[in-house]
Amino acid sequence: MIEANRQGDVWVVAEQNDGQLHDVGLELLSKGRELAETLGVRLTAVVMGADVARHAERLIHHGADRVVAAEDALLAHYQTNPYAKVLCRLIEEHKPQIVIYGATPLGRDLAPRVASALRAGLTADCTDLDIGDHVEPGTKEKYDRLLLQIRPAFGGNIIATIVNPERWPQMATVREGVMRLPDADTSRRGEVVRFKPDLSPADLPLKILDHTRAERKVNLKAARVIVAGGAGVGSKENFRLIWDLANALGAAAGASRAAVDNGWIDKDHQVGQTGTTVRPALYIAVGISGAVQHRAGMNEAQKIVAINADPHAPIFQVAHYGIVGDLNRVIPMMIDAIKKRV
After folding, report:
1. pLDDT at residue 342 tops 70
2. Cβ distance 163 to 143 under 8 Å?
3. Of the candidates 144, 159, 161, 181, which has an alpha carbon nearest to the alpha carbon of residue 33?
4. How far apart are CA 138 and CA 183, in angstroms?
5. CA–CA separation, 52 vs 69, rounded Å?
6. What is the reported pTM?
7. Distance in angstroms (rounded) separating the CA atoms of residues 151 and 158
8. Are 232 and 285 a contacting pair, CB within 8 Å?
9. How confident is the model at residue 332 (pLDDT cuts 50, 70, 90)?
10. Own/partner pairs for 136-143, CB < 8 Å, 24+ apart?
11. Rounded CA gap, 111 and 80, in Å?
12. Where are the domains positioned within the chain?
């Protein structure tokens, strides 16, 4: 366990794959900037890989005061052991007070290994972060300016706030898409620190024989309009109506977890707590009941239109406009109206 350093930086682990920065690292810089300014400390981005210092300028433009670039040919492809070893060494040397990761497959693998090695606390899958005070119920001891790690619990039925008053650094993984991608400020300047890890082939327990990367079939986070279907659509054949309406609007097709689990659409299209968090200008929810897990991923849409046969469906509580009716009648009427206007 590292001794609490209340003057330590706020760190964001900026993930990169095949030489490309992952959006989640840039998203976390927006929240990291808020946390760092509240605490009056620097915001540091840490990026690891074979040739990653070239990303420093972009990270600085998106909010980092300092970029630590850990470069080694052995870090070219992600493996848990060498990445955890490098990050643990950096944390032990620089003693940040907060380290945040994206809740991506990489982040969900790396963060627990680092937390275990450092005997630090870790909260997974956060949807918000803040700085606040905490009073220990038993001892009444007060801790000032802790990281408040906010996440859904009990299937999303409650929102839990978790603190690590003693086990530092305070660490959390944050879901993709829940933080807004900050605008780049090309006038920003920052410090770049190159770090040469002390790695050997023995630190890589696995040998990668082949590396294949499958691109996502849809970029829901960038979509301005999304038409999403749920269990109420009824069948894979009926789900064709979701695609038809999306095509008529020039929109992306989305889905609830139930529709994905039923095999009606690929998981890349899933919106919600276990899918993608979206903020489109228009979100049309068709046959989606509106469980809290789904609403967590779309309730910040600028306009929400709900189509459901059940007038009491929870989705109507967050919808700006609601249509109660059979989707097999409503959607063809919508498509016809859209085509007439075009």
Report:
1. no
2. yes
3. 181
4. 44
5. 6
6. 0.79
7. 9
8. no
9. very high
10. 136/165
11. 10
12. 10-203, 220-341
Q: What percent of the chain has pLDDT over 90?
A: 69
CATH: 3.40.50.300, 3.40.50.620, 3.40.120.10, 3.40.630.30. Which one for 10-203? 3.40.50.620
89-93, 107-111, 156-160, 233-237: segment of lowest average pLDDT: 156-160
43 contact partners, CB below 8 Å, separation of at least 6? 9, 10, 12, 29, 32, 33, 35, 36, 63, 64, 65, 66
CA distance 227 to 218: 13
Mean pLDDT, rounded, for 142-156: 85
Task: Tell the residue number behind the tokens 């590292």, with chain if given.
Answer: 2
In the Cβ-directed half-sphere of 79, how many Cα atoms lie within 13 Å?
Answer: 20
Tell which residue, 76, 25, 39, has the closest CA to residue 199. Answer: 76
Distance CA 241, CA 47 (A): 43
pLDDT at 155 (0 to 100) = 63
Superfamily of domain 220-341: TPP-binding domain (3.40.50.1220)
Phi, psi for 216 (deg, rounded to 5)? -65, 145
Q: Cβ atoms within 10 A of the Cβ of 92, count?
A: 11
Task: Please determine, for residue 5, whether its predicted confidence score (pLDDT) is greater than 80.
Answer: no
Q: 10 Å Cβ neighbour count for 70?
A: 23
Contacts of 30 (CB under 8 A, 6+ apart): 62, 63, 179, 180, 181, 182
What lies within 8 Å, CB to CB, of 317 at 6+ separation is 290
Residues 276, 223, 24, 320: is their CA dihedral positive or negative? negative
Residue with more model confidence, 182 or 55: 55
**Tokens at residue 182, please?**
């900050």
